[in-house]
Design a protein that fits this description.
This protein is of the alpha+beta class. 43% of the residues lie in helices and 19% in strands. The protein has a 5-stranded antiparallel β-sheet. The chain is elongated and about 95 Å long. The N and C termini lie far apart (107 Å).
């Protein structure tokens, strides 16, 4: 009977080795696909960033060797406070805040390791059977710049080349919310300029 088990174990061992080779091959393929992408791609478990691609390394300056760095919290330093984009109340909990919003997509204004301002659309999806999330940040800077240019044309009074009332109201709303959030006083000066056209 023992003689019959030995060939069976040898056969099973070959199957396991073949499976390990296939898994290794799939991991290499997945890594190559992720690094081929221009989007920032990372996997998080709420506490830290577990895996990330080459674009993420270039944007943040974080290398794969920096295993002790709390990457998820470190990423919060790149946020730019901008009323038109997601900005966390508590920067240490920024990803949790996005989840709590109930949206799986937000636009963010970030500044990279080289001090370049870049706009991203972050989309995330939970990974089945785990507490992890796959996050993809798509660079939407050129689209946002185009929208801003068009908005500028729409919100400017062409004759005196100053902002119109619609834009003034939007600015006031943002500044009042900022003063309220930071518990600071808020002041406004209003001037009437005669013969503005001249």
């Amino acid at each position: 009977m023992a003689a019959n088990i030995h060939p069976y174990l040898t056969y099973q061992y070959k199957d396991v080795k073949q499976l390990e080779k296939e898994i290794s091959k799939q991991k290499k393929l997945t890594k190559a696909l992720l690094n081929f992408q221009d989007h920032l791609i990372f996997v998080t478990d709420h506490e830290d960033i577990i895996e990330f691609n080459q674009a993420f390394c270039i944007f943040t300056g974080i290398s794969k060797a920096q295993t002790q760095l709390p990457k998820l919290k470190y990423l919060s330093r790149f946020f730019v406070e901008d009323a038109n984009y997601f900005y966390p109340i508590d920067k240490r909990r920024w990803f949790e805040e996005i989840i709590e919003m109930g949206k799986n997509s937000v636009n963010m204004h970030l500044i990279n390791i080289n001090n370049e301002e870049i706009f991203f659309n972050l989309e995330y999806e939970s990974i089945p059977g785990s507490n992890q999330y796959l996050c993809v940040c798509k660079d939407i800077t050129s689209l946002e710049n185009e929208i801003r240019e068009n908005r500028q044309l729409f919100l400017m009074d062409s004759l005196p080349y100053s902002i119109n009332q619609l834009e003034m109201n939007a600015i006031l709303e943002v500044e009042m919310r900022r003063a309220e959030r930071l518990n600071q006083t808020f002041s406004m000066i209003i001037m009437d300029i005669d013969l503005i056209k001249h």
